[in-house]
């Protein structure tokens, strides 16, 4: 089990599950937005809990002890970034001005 502070709604859990699909050794992923936790069933001969925590952080989610990959975090909905504002969109150039 890992604490994921920004796992605050079901959509965040769905995104995390989608981003971790296909990781060798992970059998199941259960997310709990109420407790802000992720529970894994995994092959311990292939992965350790620290490896899972690293995969979660690479997916854009902070864990209790590891910061998220900033590029992947920026792609998350604001609620999954703990309310951080979305990156500013580029302002289109006005050809008339």
Written overview of the protein:
This protein has helices at residues 10-20, 49-58, 70-74; strands at residues 2-3, 26-32, 37-42. It is of the alpha+beta class. The chain has one domain: Alpha-Beta Plaits, CATH 3.30.70. The chain is globular. The termini are far apart. Mean pLDDT is 89; it is low at 85-89.
SSE blueprint and pairings:
Layout: E1 2-3, H1 10-20, E2 26-32, E3 37-42, H2 49-58, H3 70-74
Antiparallel strand pairs: 1-3, 2-3
Short key terms for the protein model shown above:
97 residues, alpha+beta, Alpha-Beta Plaits, three-stranded antiparallel sheet, 3 helices
Major β-sheet profile: 3 strands, antiparallel
| CATH topology title | Alpha-Beta Plaits
Number of helices: 3
H and E string: EHEEHH
In the predicted model, the low-confidence regions spanning at least 5 consecutive residues are 85-89
CATH architecture: 2-Layer Sandwich
What overall geometry do the principal axes of the alpha carbons give?
A: globular
CATH C-level label:
Alpha Beta
Overall pLDDT score: 89
> What is the end-to-end distance?
55 Å
Strand runs, count: 3
Cα Rg: 16 Å
- Beta content comes to 15-25%
Count of individual domains: 1
Physical arrangement of strands within the biggest beta sheet: 1-3-2
The secondary-structure class comes to alpha+beta
Say what oligomer this is: single chain
Brief characterization of the structure:
This protein is α+β, with helices and mostly antiparallel strands and 97 residues long.
């Amino acid at each position: 089990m890992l604490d994921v502070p920004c796992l605050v709604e079901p959509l965040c859990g769905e995104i995390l599950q989608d981003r971790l699909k296909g990781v060798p050794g992970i059998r199941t992923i259960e997310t709990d937005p109420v407790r802000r936790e992720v529970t894994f069933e995994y092959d311990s001969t292939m992965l350790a809990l620290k490896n899972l925590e690293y995969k979660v952080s690479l997916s854009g989610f902070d864990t209790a002890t590891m910061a998220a990959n900033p590029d992947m975090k920026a792609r998350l909905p604001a609620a999954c970034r703990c309310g951080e504002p979305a990156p500013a969109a580029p302002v289109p150039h006005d050809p008339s001005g």
